[in-house]
Design goal:
Order of helices and strands: EHEEEEEEEEHHHEEHHEEH
Shape: globular
Radius of gyration: 19 Å
Strand order of the largest sheet: 1-2-9-4-7
Largest sheet: 5 strands, antiparallel
Helix content: 25-40%
Structural class: alpha+beta
CATH class of the largest domain: Mainly Beta
CATH superfamily of the largest domain: Jelly Rolls
Strand content: 15-25%
C-alpha cells in the first residue's frame, strides 16, 4: 500500500543525519512511501531487484533458502536501516526474502537512482558504506559462532544481538520489542526448534529470560552475556 511519509518522520534517522534540509527534501521527495502489514512480503529471494528501501517504522525479517531447501534468517531490519541494496552487492536479484514481522512503513526508490543519489550526497554514501561494513562484521561473527561455538552460546549471542538492536528497557529487564518466535531463533543459529525450546525453558528456570506473546524479555542481560562468552556453565 502506498502512503505519504513526511520529511519530519525520517530526519531523525542516522542515515540522513548529515544531510542539509535541501538534500533531505530531494531524497525523500524522490521516494515512494509503502506500508506493509505483518507477514507481508516486501521482495522475494531471486526476484529482480527493482527498488531499494529504508525502513521508517516496524521490523522486517530477511531470510534465505539454501540449496538444500533449509530456510535461515540472515538478519532483522530495524528502523533507519537500508535494505534491498542489491546494486551495492553487484547483483541484479535480491539475495533474500524480506518479510514484515510487524506493521511496517518504508521509503523506496527505483534501483537506477542508487548511483546518482550517492554521487550527489557523499554523506549518504558514507552512511551506506558504514552499513555494509557493519553487516559484513556481523556476518563474520555469525560464521565464527556457527563454526566454533556450542549451540547454547550461539543462541545467547543471537538473543543479545536482538536485545541490543531492538530492545526496550522495562522494570524487569530488556524487552525485544517485536514478535520473535523460537523458530526464528532456531533459523538464526543453525539449530532446531526443539533445541531452542529446551534452552529457553532452562533459561526461564534460571531467571535469565521470560517468554510471553512472542516478545521475549531478557531479565538478566549480564547473565546472558556470561553464557554467550562461555563464562557460565551451560544449562542443558
Amino acid at each position: 500500500m502506498h502512503i505519504q511519509i513526511e520529511r519530519s518522520e525520517v530526519e531523525h534517522l542516522a542515515l540522513f543525519g548529515s544531510l542539509d534540509t535541501a538534500g533531505l527534501d530531494e531524497i525523500v521527495g524522490a521516494a515512494t512511501g509503502r506500508r506493509y502489514r505483518a507477514s507481508d512480503t516486501v521482495f522475494e529471494q531471486g526476484e529482480q531487484a527493482t527498488h531499494f528501501f529504508v525502513l521508517v517504522r516496524g521490523r522486517l525479517r530477511v531470510t534465505q533458502v539454501t540449496s538444500e531447501g533449509q530456510q535461515i534468517i540472515i538478519r532483522m531490519v530495524n528502523p533507519g536501516d537500508l535494505f534491498g541494496i542489491a546494486k551495492a552487492l553487484a547483483t541484479l536479484d535480491y539475495p533474500g526474502t524480506a518479510t514484515a514481522v510487524a506493521e511496517s512503513c518504508a521509503l523506496c526508490w527505483p534501483m537506477q537512482m542508487w548511483t546518482g543519489l550517492l554521487e550527489r550526497h557523499p554523506s549518504l554514501a558514507i552512511q551506506a558504506m558504514q552499513t555494509m561494513g557493519s553487516r559484513l562484521l556481523e556476518a563474520q561473527l555469525r560464521v565464527r559462532e556457527l563454526s566454533t561455538e556450542e549451540v547454547e552460546r550461539r543462541v545467547a549471542h543471537a538473543v543479545l544481538r536482538l536485545a541490543n538492536q531492538s530492545g526496550r528497557k522495562e522494570p524487569g529487564g530488556v524487552r525485544i520489542d517485536f514478535p520473535i518466535s523460537k523458530q526464528d531463533i532456531a533459523e538464526m543459529t543453525g539449530t532446531t526448534l526443539h533445541t531452542v525450546s529446551r534452552i529457553l525453558t532452562a533459561w526461564e528456570g534460571a531467571g535469565l529470560v521470560e517468554g510471553g506473546r512472542q516478545k521475549l524479555l531478557v531479565r538478566d542481560p549480564h547473565g546472558l552475556v556470561m553464557v554467550a562468552d562461555g563464562l557460565r556453565p551451560c544449562l542443558l
